[in-house]
Amino acid sequence: MMIRFAIVPLLLALNFSMCKRGETVSQNSQSSGSPAAATAAPVAAASPKITKPVVDQTAQTIIFCYHRLVDKIRYPGTEITPAAFETQMKELKDRGITVISMQDLLAWKRGEKNIPPRCAVISFDDGWKSQYEVAWPIMKKFGYPFTMFIYTEGVAGGSLGGGQAITWEQLADMRDNGVDIEAHTATHQDLREGHTIMVANPGGKRTRTKLTGPQYEQWVQSEVVGSKELLEQRLGIKVNCFAVPFGNYNDHVKELARNAGYEAMFTVYGQPITFTSSLDSLGRYAIEANKPKVFEDALKMIGTSTGGAAAVAEVGAKDLATQPADGETVRTALPLIKANLSGIGQIEPGSVQMRVSGLGVVPASYDPKTGTVSYQVTQKLREKSCSVFVSVKSAGKKVEAHWTFGIEEGATGGTTSPAPTAKK
Ligand SMILES: [Zn+2]
User: Fold this and answer.
1) Which is the most buried residue in 165, 236, 328, 344, by most CB within 10 A?
2) 84 C-alpha vs ligand 1 centroid, how far in Å?
């Protein structure tokens, strides 16, 4: 606790210096002038007109979760080869995604520390020896920080710690070298009341059972709170993160975790983490040998999203090469409205929708080959400005983009824009 108090002012001081650097950047982009020039700028900073916040609230992070690293895949649901893992770590670097520590992510969420616009957090679950022996050297090579989510009975010597389990000595070594070690329960089971679990009976035999009432409460307490205390006592650390096994939990479990002093809870439902993402359900992308697309999709999400709530991912109009462009003024009241959705990723068929202010939902046409959605306005737009909303469903989530363009006063149909063409 004392150490924490000492560190916070230091972080704040760092923030202010970072903040100043940020302002210089945004002033530079301001001087670039016209919207067109701003579009051409490599990485747009947050809107220069808005007072720069202490932290960049538009930054986004994806959290990855890995299990075992093995040369020969036998359980593709939880394994990956070292080569594939290393390729992914390199890809993050090549794509300009900064790997940050979990604690930096949380400090950013608290508004205490800035993070780069596009980040990733790497975590390893369950405590396998290969995480120490294989993953760690690769992480060192890249200089990446990472987090270990440990279930305490699965550590070597515990009731569930087999030959491939990490040891307490290895964990201590990682701790000494700055690796973040966090909790993943005691016995790695479904934490909801009345669900089937395995319990150890006197004599060591494990049997299937369903716990309810006080018996359940006692058990879930040892899973959520007991495991945290054990890690803290065995390793002399502070544990503030909790990864829920299989992502199975409910409000009661959340409350227990909050009361136990966990600051953040993690599931395995991958999603980009934004400044407003709820701390009690931060989704991680579980990367497995049999689903290589998950990694690619996660990168795409962070590549095109620009904040917004977790349920609806917002995409910047600039990323969609919209026509008319955001902020542009057109000389026709009958413009052709277009956007390229190919950067969003896999789009569910029939989910593309376009809304135009003053018109509502319009019968836009979507070409899956080019990823282009377009609508030729057929009745003159009467307002001075027009807002367009395009929404699609991708990987089960709603993705939305909106932009606004102006219409020159006295504009008529089709003076400078391409002549209206027949709809496809
Ligand atoms: Zn696990």
Assistant:
1) 344
2) 20
